[in-house]
Amino acid sequence: MHRLNSFRFLLTTVLFAAAFAGCSGARKAANDAPAVVTVSDIDASGDEPVFFSFADGKPVGSGDAWDISFKGTDIGVNGTARVVDRAFERVLEAPESGYLEAVPKTEEERWFEYNPDTHVVTPVPFRTIIVRTSSGGHAKIEIQDYYDGLGTPRFYTFRYAYQPSGSRFLAAIDG
User: Does pTM top 0.85 for this prediction?
Assistant: First the structure.
């Protein structure tokens, strides 16, 4: 009987330690998780690109530190980019490789679908843009809309999660 009680105590101690270690890891992941930021109505209808900084969370001048740019349906990056066919929430980590100097424009890989009959641009569902910034950070972006509230085109609404530390961890928390 004494052996059985000792075994139960040892088993309980090991299980408690494992559970506590698991909680510690979960806290660490939550602390490292980038916040999700939503940006509405970035006006990309002009002749010049609109430059955006993930760190600042807003458009910046072309001479400032920028990460992504918008002009019409073109999205530029100050770094490298990769498009993945995965929902924004399911992108937990930035890929190690496969990045290009620009966001792809081919029909199979671009972020949008274009209907030539109606001339409507629609974001491709479950397609996420991953950016490796020139400063070594990573971000994931989901283009949510290409029109403002009045239906005017070239007004981007998107959400992103930015990891400036260089970590590829992108499992985000709503901010």
Answer: no
